[in-house]
Amino acid sequence: MAPPRGSQQRKADALALLSAPAADAWVATASSDGQAYLVPLSIGWTGESIVLVTEARSVTAKNLLRASRSRLAVGGTRDVVMIDTELIGDHAMSDAPAMPVEAFVSQSGWDPRNDSNAAGYRLFELRPVHLQAWREANEIAGRTLMRNATWVD
Length: 153
Fold this sequence. Notes:
Blueprint: H1 7-19, E1 24-30, E2 36-42, E3 44-45, E4 50-55, H2 59-67, E5 69-74, E6 80-92, H3 98-108, E7 121-134, E8 144-147, E9 150-151
Antiparallel strand pairs: 1-2, 1-5, 3-4, 4-7, 5-6, 6-7, 7-8, 8-9
């Protein structure tokens, strides 16, 4: 087992995963009665927020709009970044601001505005509020890199 990374290296590695081309995340939301829902989605990273695009009628969209919270997992089980988020932006694709759209399009390689269902998609901007990163058991200590939307260290 490799020695544990320091917090600055973990932060750099977490940001690299968030900004990697074709990055995907497992997105967990919950219904009003606590039913968990988990779906893989492509992401965009603006440097401050995570951008998701999904159908407006999807369970994920409905749960995000209702609760304004989600949990994302990026990376594999041996190099995971877990992120608790809050919803800071919700837009129909036709009304979405250019910056988050371009972050999503350039990173995901898919432009939902050109899709035959473009009118059915919504863009969601999520602000990370709690972020943890670890690889192996020796990195469990010190895994919290962000609290209350502020980087630790």
